[in-house]
Amino acid sequence: MSHSGRLYVISGPSGAGKGTVIRQVLKKHPDIMLSVSATTRPLRPGERNGIDYQFVSVPEFIGMRDRGEFLESAEVYGNYYGTPRGPVDSALRAGRDVLLELDIQGAASVKRAKPDAVLVFIEPPSLDDLHDRIRGRGTEDPDALFKRLEAAYEEVRSKGTYDHIVVNDEVERAADELARIIESSR
């Protein structure tokens, strides 16, 4: 591979289907690395340590943060999340493209740290659709649901700061569009 890797930050509101679109792209492009975030939140059923997240204790996380081991980190709903710098930098040096799935604050931090990062915003076809998707999960109590919806509306408002916007009206089409963005940036 002749090019040095590029960093792609994928954001979008909860319920926009970011994870699904990213999985489709990775299926077709196994050479692209998905960065695994570190978090202090508890493991959820079906999640695997080191695959979905790197699960760490609060003292471990704070130590990593204080040593500058994160590209970005944040506290969200009382838990810490961060993007470990080491694996991302090694993959980029090896010429691999790297995807990060981050919220808008995380994306802004990464853009400051790595100005050549490409920011892609994935949004649902409409806010009504988003509302239905978040509600349809049935995992949130009404208060948490309200907070997530509020955060989602806030995120959609800031999409203008992104390099690309992909509407996830249909997963396969959205994944193809994301793949094209990656290929054209190489």
A few lines on this structure:
With 186 residues, this protein is α/β, with parallel strands linked by helices.
For this entry, give a set of tags.
186 residues; alpha/beta; Rossmann fold; five-stranded parallel β-sheet; four-stranded mixed β-sheet; 7 helices; 9 strands
Model description:
The chain is an alpha/beta fold. Helices cover 43% and strands 20% of the residues. It has helices spanning 18-28, 58-66, 85-93, 104-113, 127-136, 142-157, 171-185; strands at 7-11, 33-34, 38-39, 54-55, 70-76, 79-84, 98-101, 118-123, 164-167. The chain is globular and about 40 Å long. The N and C termini lie close together (11 Å). The relative contact order is 0.23. The model has no long low-confidence stretch (mean pLDDT 89).
- The low-pLDDT segments are none
Largest sheet: 5 strands, parallel
In which order are the strands of the major sheet placed?
Answer: 2-7-1-8-9
Name the overall outline.
globular
CATH architecture: 3-Layer(aba) Sandwich
Helix content: 40-55%
Number of strands: 9
Distance N to C terminus: 11 Å
The CATH topology, please? Rossmann fold
Strand residue content = 15-25%
Encode the helix/strand succession as letters: EHEEEHEEHEHEHHEH
Total domains: 1
Q: How large is the radius of gyration?
A: 16 Å
The CATH class is Alpha Beta
- What integer is the average pLDDT? 89
| Count of helical regions | 7
Structural class: alpha/beta
CATH superfamily: P-loop containing nucleotide triphosphate hydrolases
